[in-house]
Amino acid sequence: MFSPLNPSDAVSLARSFLLKSMSAASQHAVKDQTALLDLFDRVINLPEFQAAVAGLYFTPLTGLQLLAGQDVNSHEGYSQLVIDPEGVGHDEGLQRYCAGVAPASDSQLLDVESALNDRLDENPPGPYVTGDRVYREALELRLSSRAKAKAGSGSGLYNGSHFIHVGTTFEPSGPGASDRRVVVAARTEGPCYFNTLDTTESLSLEAAIAFHERAEAAPLSIEHLPLRSKLRSHLQGRSELLSGEGRCSSLSVATLLVLRHPTQQEYLGMIWCRSQGAVAVGRDKYHIIPGGMFEYDHQFDLESSQFSLVQNICREYAEELFGVGDDLSKIATHGLDDIPAYMRDANYLRMERLLRDRDTDRKVQLLFAGTSVDLMNLRTELCTVLVVNDPEEVRHILVNKKPSFEFRSREHGPVESGKKFLHLVPLELANSQLLARYPVRPLDMTPHGAAAFWLGKRAFCRARALGLIAGPK
Question: Pick from 16, 58, 225, 372: most CB atoms within 10 A?
Fold first, then answer.
């Protein structure tokens, strides 16, 4: 049992801000909102809190149910991410994550773009019923306090343009019950990241405050969460895991990067530790890259393939793995002002060519792993796997990698924790060995990061078993 913080005027005042949907923070609330974010950081890392949030959607499965493959815990097509280390049906040792997952079926593994609806939704968005600016204003205060960091550290919030989740459906793709195709519908809204913070992270914040005020012991129910209750009422029986209505829920894409070792002939998944000093939330937690919001450049034509998982992955590959986004001004334009700058980066162009060229003898392969939902903020993420078989590209990654500021270790940490910056994880190890040797347990990773890793591992091993991955068995 974790002892709760002593009640403070700061937390009480912040909660009143949240529930009354205060539109702006006053100068007098600066210290209060800083305390609020500190409280939030602490509570969301409590296993009791993560279990309480997951309990809003899933009944905890037993080890025997997992072993028998009983689908008794499904919530509108999603299941809670639970890993059984031993695979023998014991409840002890089960790893329960605060994420819902929908794994890809065999028929969708190699058809990555099939996870996106054919056309963007053109209907205007409905009202946002979960909006509150307190969380974003607290983030801005925290980041502004780090503005003295070196130039290019990325401190500060940017109101980027993302594809917004409209809804997720499961379409039959074969005769079996598990033969289904995940399809995600999206729309555009222009600059919208601030709206996403205001309408999704407000759900996380509300849950953290409610859990704290209930002495961090009692289970949560929807009645304790006015914003989530309002959202559920607005959806009129539709699942908030499947529908993006009532909020601005930016889609994200996470790709487990898998390298084929050039000499040992094993496949290694890369997981990275988020910097302590360069990010506002999820600090010191492991995640995977390339990954991030499903962005587009709104000043360019959307029909120029921006609504594409392949293009997004190539973009994030260049930006997050080789630091292209740190200084786009260094990329020569050569008069090509009609396309985004990252499309002219050599890393982007090389990966796009390898992925789109069918005559590359599978030097790189892209798999669709499924979708996940972070149960704290109800944001949907599309999960993929990028398998690099080509030894030259593997060498290029290992020698020239320059991760984005969110993961960079030398300038921004993680220093105090002593955590290893990068792990190369052998994906064909048994789950018990992975959990014993690597930081892939629920409190080691962000919910989306954990879902992307385990869905990615599952998709990779399934593709290997089906003979879809190049290389030795």
Answer: 372
- Entry pTM: 0.87
pLDDT at 466 over 80: yes
Report pLDDT digits (tens) over 138-157: 777 776 665 544 444 445 67
**What is the three-state SS of the chain?**
CCCCCCCCHHHHHHHHHHHCCCCCCCHHHHHHHHHHHHHHHHHCCCHHHHHHHHCCCCCCCCHHHHHHCCCCCCECCEEEEEECCCCCCCCCCCEEEEEEEEECCHHHCCCHHHHECCCCCCCCCCCCCCCCCHHHHHHHHHHHCCCCCCCCCCCCCCCCEEEEEEEEEEEECCCCCCCEEEEEEEEEEEECHHHHHHHHHHHHHHHHHHHHHCCCCCCCCHHHCHHHHHHHHHHCCCCCCCECCCCCCECEEEEEEEEECCCCCCEEEEEEECCCCCCCCCCCCEECCCEEECECCCCCCCCCCCCCHHHHHHHHHHHHHHCHHHCHHHCCCCCCCCCCHHHHCHHHHHHHHHHHCCCCCCCEEEEEEEEEEECCCCEEEEEEEEEECCHHHHHHHHHHCCCCCCCCCCCCCCCCCCCCCEEEEECCCCHHHHHHHCCCCCCCECHHHHHHHHHHHHHHHHHHHCCCCCCCC
Q: For 192-244, what is each residue's pLDDT tens digit? A: 999 999 999 999 999 999 998 887 766 888 988 999 999 999 999 899 999 99
Q: Which residue has the higher pLDDT, 323 or 465?
A: 465
CATH number of the domain that residue 368 is part of: 3.90.79.10
pLDDT at 296 over 90: no
Range of the domain at 260: 60-129+150-194+249-465
* Residue 164 in domain: yes
* pLDDT exceeds cutoff 80 at 68: no
Domain count, the chain: 1
